[in-house]
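Replying to the earlier thread about multi-chain prediction with a worked example.

Input:
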Amino acid sequence: MRVPTGSPGVDGSTGVTTSVDAWAVAASVLDPEVPVLTIEDLGLLRAVEEGVDGITVTITPTYSGCPAMDAIRDDILAAFGRAGRHDVRVEFVLAPAWSTDWISEQGRRRLEEFGIAPPATRVPGRVSLTLSLRCPQCGSPDTRELSRFGSTACKSLWVCNACAEPFDHFKTLR
Amino acid sequence: MSPPARGPSAPLAAYVLALADDALVAAQRTGEWIAAAPQIEEDVALGNIALDLLGQARNLLTYAGSLQRPPRTEDDLAYLRDAEDFRNVHLVERPWAEDFGVAMARLLILSTYLEELYARLAGSTDETLAAVAAKAVKEVAYHRDHATRWVLRLGDGTEESHRRMQAALDAEWPFTEELFDDAHVDPALVADGVAVDPVTLREPVTAGLADVLSEATLPVPQATAAPGGGRQGLHTEHLAPLLAEMQGLARAHPGVTW
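Result:
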């Protein structure tokens, strides 16, 4: 089994993969709802294992009803297909339950660049309270929640009092 | 998902199916609010809540189907059973009377019950049930918070909103008791730490509800429990039409995908 290392970026089009870059192929798949983030950035990619009968990719959903999981599975199979590998299975696991703490630093940065305020970070030994969110458009901390539910299960809807732009917030889930 | 530690167990399959049917029917009913809620944020909120419940239902139905002999898929169980084969409680199957207050009263009752249930089930000795519950408990806690905010706002709001919130609670309250019915749960499952005894949820659920109602200046309804029977397949006249709508496409075009 390979565990997360290094940065993603292999586009899977370079020919037949070896076991060394199987992780990179899977990690290159983008989330269909936040297409600037890879499934590795989001912490959805749990394992890539190569055995005698092929490659097994294990992913976990953000929320129980996340409708993107089927699309992600298809995209993983397509990415390996482009890399010449067709002996790939995608498995879903629920435990341990996904947490926004699994979103990588790079993922948090990309979320913000995409206009989505990232979830709260966990500081060991401290209880973090999110008193306000920083507007991803203008940077102002003067923002308010419009709706606790947003365009997808993992987001809520906010608005900036300074620049008046609405924005999504990736809800903190632990 | 991992297979059960023991061989197929009919009592376990029945227990999981009851959990699954509660979530599935609640999801389908809640989805009716999309484009019908009093404000667009609530269309989105109730759509999201329905989606969470549907996801929980799919996980539970998949597991319940895997425990049956012969095994059945989640779609078999969702689309190819009639009302008398469903094991959900009456709370989740009844229509809304086009009343948002009823939606919030029911969501408060259901999510309070589900949070207490899933929090305990996350410690189940059954690995799959524990995994499904550990994921679901975070979702229903958020639903509970949402319902709580609305019940506080409406209960402790205007005279009219208070009156209507109270009427909605009075209408839903008789269906609370069925949640604590343990007749369908094999005592061996409870003894083995697999299932949660529904009776043990009565105290924390009613206490949690009473706290919210007290803060919302709403008296706890003094209601006689409705007859129940959902766990035995005895349903109100409202379940069959709900299933007809949910199952129509799958039955007209068997095996259809898109």
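Chain B touches chain A at residues 1, 41, 44-45, 47-49, 51-56, 58-59, 127, 130-132, 134-136, 138-139, 142, 145-146 (CB under 8 Å).

Feel free to reuse this layout for your own posts.
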